[in-house]
Write a structure and sequence with these properties.
- This protein is an alpha+beta fold.
- It is 20% helix and 40% strand.
- It folds into 2 domains: 33-151, Copper Amine Oxidase, Chain A, domain 1, CATH 3.30.457.10; 181-264, Immunoglobulin-like (Sandwich).
- The chain is built from 5 helices and 21 strands.
- The strands form 5 sheets. The chain has a 5-stranded antiparallel beta sheet with strand order 5-6-7-8-9, covered by helices on one side.
- The chain is globular.
- Mean pLDDT is 76; it is low at 12-35 and 155-177.
Length: 265
């Protein structure tokens, strides 16, 4: 009788332990969850992301920019101090500052629907950036959760994919190309807002014979250019709160313009 009671008590004691063990068992990833991972393809060839995969955040698809840009033949550089990504290919120069909702390509400002972000120490950008800044055709396949990147037949509409060029105005486009030239070294342009001393600073390099001005809000200021083309503009005070600037250069009737954002120091 004593043996039966002991066996019964032992069986009852083991029941909660078994239940606890079942509850503590790690969940397994279902095949469906694996299929929901976002993929990226360029001309039907999948791009590999070794350390950070594309993600969907608040309904936006964000992709690591370095693997994609390098797969498309671009050179990518990262400045940790200014948190700036620089992308170069041929004559194209693209600059993107993390947390800012604009990018700059060859002096032209491109607005992003969401800013670039740092995820797992990697810079991720909205898919739209690939189309507007790198000039590629981008589509989304919801069935396979895949970003489809393809060569864009018309690469003259950078930042204007939603506004097709009017074929009835060729003379206007030709005139613009005659007067607008590259005077600034776009990669050298930097804007800083030094909060400690309450001043704005814009530095860079331009054609030495150019006349340069910087626009802050509603005010325009002349900029002194050194013989080697370098310049350093600094202004204190009443323009507190301004986040962006515009540089304009002119030489022999030719013009160049650069829009930029101030980086707080």
């Amino acid at each position: 009788m004593l043996k039966k009671v002991t066996s019964l008590l032992l069986a009852i004691a083991l029941v909660p332990m078994a239940a606890f063990s079942a509850a503590a068992a790690p969940a397994t990833v279902t095949p469906k969850a694996v299929q929901n991972a976002v993929k990226v393809e360029y001309n039907k060839k999948q791009i590999a992301f070794p350390d950070q995969a594309p993600i969907i955040n608040q309904g936006r698809t964000l992709v690591p920019i370095r693997p994609i840009a390098e797969s498309l033949g671009f050179e990518v550089k990262w400045n940790e101090q200014t948190r700036t990504v620089t992308i170069n290919k041929g004559k194209d120069n693209i600059r993107l500052v993390v947390t800012q909702k604009i990018a700059n390509k060859n002096g032209q400002t491109i607005k992003l629907d969401v800013p670039a972000q740092i995820v797992n120490k990697r810079t991720v950008v909205p898919v739209r950036f690939i189309a507007e800044a790198l000039s590629y055709k981008v589509e989304w396949d919801p069935n396979t959760q895949t970003v489809l990147i393809a060569d864009n037949v018309n690469t003259n509409q950078v930042g204007q994919q939603e506004q097709p060029k009017d074929p009835a105005k060729p003379a206007t486009d030709e005139k613009k190309s005659d007067t607008h030239v590259a005077l600034f070294d776009k990669a050298s342009i930097e804007g800083k807002k030094v909060n400690v001393f309450a001043y704005y600073q814009v530095t860079g390099k331009v054609d030495p014979d150019s006349e340069v001005v910087v626009v802050l809000g509603d005010d325009t200021f002349e900029v002194d250019v050194n013989k080697d083309g370098t310049f350093k503009f600094q202004h204190e005070g009443e323009h507190d709160g301004i986040r962006s600037f515009t540089l304009k250069a002119e030489k022999d009737g030719k013009q160049d313009t650069v829009d930029g954002e101030f980086i707080a120091q």
